Amino acid sequence: EKDQDKDKSLDGDEAASSNTAASASLMPTIWDKTIPYDGETFHLEYMDLDEFLLENSIPSSPTQLNGLMSVDELEEEKESQSCPPSPTPSGVMYSVLDDEDSDDSDCGQDNLNPVSTEAVEVPVNFEPDPTDLVLSSVPGGELFNPRKHKFSEEELKPQPMIKKAKKVYVPNELKDEKYWTRRKKNNVAAKRSRDARRLKENQITVRAAFLEKENAALRLEVAELRKVVSRCKSVISKYEAKHGAL
C-alpha cells in the first residue's frame, strides 16, 4: 500500500509539473499535432515559413519572440528600426553628379551673360613719356590716360584737308581799327583750332601706342589659348575614340 501511495504521489507531481510547464510556455506544443501517415498518401509539400508560424500562432519577429527583453531594450530596437537607412554610395554619387550638373548649368548661364570689356584688364608693359601725357592733356584738366580714354566716332573720322584761303592784299591806308580787330579775332580762332587739332593728334598717337602694345599682348595670349584648345581637342578625340561620344 505504501508503494501504491508513492506511485500515486509521483504521478500527481508529474501531472502538476506538466501543467505548469504548459501554462508557462507562450507557444503551442507543435509536437502534440500528429500527421496521418499510411505509407502511400504521405508526400512532402512546400510550405512558407511565415504561413507556418502564423498557423501555429508563433510570433515571427524576434522582439515578439523574446519575451524576456527589457522595456529599454525594446525601445532602443524600435528606434533603430525607425531610423532611416544611411544613403548608399550610389545615392551619394548621384547627388554629387546632380550638384555638378547644376554647377555646370550655372556656369553655362554665366557664360551666356555679356562680359563688360572695361572690366577685363590685359597686362601690358607700357610706360608712356610723361611729356607726351602732358602734351595730350587739356590745360588745367586731368592727365590723359591712354589705357582708358575712348574717342567718339566723329573724332575718329578722317578729317578733310583744308586749303588756306588766298591772301588778300590790303593797302596800308585801308588798315583801320576795324581791320585790326577782325584780324586779331581770326588769329585767335586759328590758334585755338590748331591747338585743339594738335591736342587730338597727340592723344590719338599716345592711345595708338598703347593699343599696339595691348594688341601684341593679346596676340600672344590667343596663341597660348589656341595651344590649350588644341590639346583639349586631342584629349577629347582620344576619349571619344575609346569610350564613345560624350
UniProtKB/TrEMBL annotation:
Q: Where does the BZIP domain lie?
A: 176-239
**The entry's keywords:** Activator, DNA-binding, Nucleus, Transcription, Transcription regulation
> Which parts of the sequence are annotated with region: Disordered?
1-30, 72-109
Q: Look up keyword Calcium and say if it applies.
A: no
GO cellular component terms? nucleus
SMART domains from the entry? BRLZ (SM00338)
Q: Compositional bias (Acidic residues) spans?
A: 97-107
Which Gene Ontology molecular function entries are recorded, alphabetically?
A: DNA-binding transcription factor activity, RNA polymerase II-specific; RNA polymerase II cis-regulatory region sequence-specific DNA binding
Q: Where is the composition biased (Basic and acidic residues)?
A: 1-11
**Feature: compositional bias, Low complexity:** 15-25
Looking up Gene3D superfamilies in the UniProt record yields: 1.20.5.170
Localisation per UniProt entry: Nucleus
Q: Which SUPFAM superfamilies match?
A: Leucine zipper domain
CDD domains xref list:
bZIP_HLF
InterPro entries, alphabetized: bZIP (IPR004827), bZIP_sf (IPR046347), PAR_bZIP (IPR040223)
Q: Which family does it belong to?
A: Belongs to the bZIP family. PAR subfamily.
Report the PANTHER family cross-referenced here: THYROTROPH EMBRYONIC FACTOR, THYROTROPH EMBRYONIC FACTOR RELATED
Q: This protein is called what?
A: TEF transcription factor, PAR bZIP family member
- Source organism per entry reads Callorhinchus milii
